[in-house]
Amino acid sequence: xxRTRSExxxxxxxxxxxxxxxxxxxxxxxxxxPAALRRAxxxxxxxxxxxxxxxxxGGRATGDTAATARAVLAGIDDGxxxxxxxxxxxxxxxxxxxxxxxxxLYADAAPAGAPGWDDLDTLRRREAIEAYRDGFDTAxxxxxxxxxxxxxPDSDTGAAAPPGRRRPGA
Length: 170
Description:
Elements: H1 27-56, H2 65-78, H3 81-84, H4 102-109, H5 122-151, H6 154-157
Helix pairs in contact: 1-5, 2-5
């Protein structure tokens, strides 16, 4: 199952009344809403990667963090499912009781004046959540790679550690 496809909370019953068309058909007015959701997804993805790094290549990690960092970077570059499946993911499956729903994410991230979740048609809902997921996944992978490069000794990266950053074990 692809982690980039939306999973809907509940299927719409065949006998359900048609959802009224919301007043958001103006593409220019709508364009800023997915952008805001993408930015919110980026913040969440970067934060999830920061937590991931602590236990994998950071201060709470055990073992050879440089070897782990090399393996993760190679797996990201190669698109290795074993590595990619171990990275933070935007999980809206509803599997966890305290996980936010799509409606929760939208309500938290949509800018003021945006139509409410219940006012969106299926296409706009899908577009909004895909923007959030895209932002999350992109930022999470980028931040994971950044943490892994930071965990490598200077000889592996060909450069000194960034100012203000201490290499693990240094």
